[in-house]
Request: fold
Amino acid sequence: MRAIIQRIKEGKVVVDQETTGEIKKGLLVYLGVGHEDTVEDIKYMVQKISNLRIFEDEEEKMNLSLLDIDGEMLVVSQFTLMGDCRKGRRPNFTEAAKPQYAESLYEVFVSHCRGLGINVATGVFQAHMMVDAVNDGPVTMLIDSKKVF
Reply:
């Protein structure tokens, strides 16, 4: 499982000219699910993302987590994160989970985040989405549950 997380002041997802998810201060999480991912990967990602200290404290040091600031989360499914671009010019998506499996793990991820008391908004799985975010910093992190980077 892979994620790109961005610290944002606000963000929203629009599908077919309708806003499907919107948050204020918090994290925009692009989430990619691999075919070998399990609930253990979800648990790792939820804990890592929700507790990652990337928000500034009163001394302007990145010392606070999403949970510390009572921030929100906008989760957007993005299978392209599983793309392998090392060979040729076209990404290879063989590591990406099949849609039905990916959607179930995506939903479990969202559920686990909500279980921590985080207000979570989402996009629409497999839809063409327009994502609008006001980056704060910018602060952008890459996380992989297999710890390949």
About this structure: The first helix runs from residue 39 to 51. The beta strands are 2-15, 18-23, 26-32, 55-56, 62-64, 72-77, 119-122, 130-144.
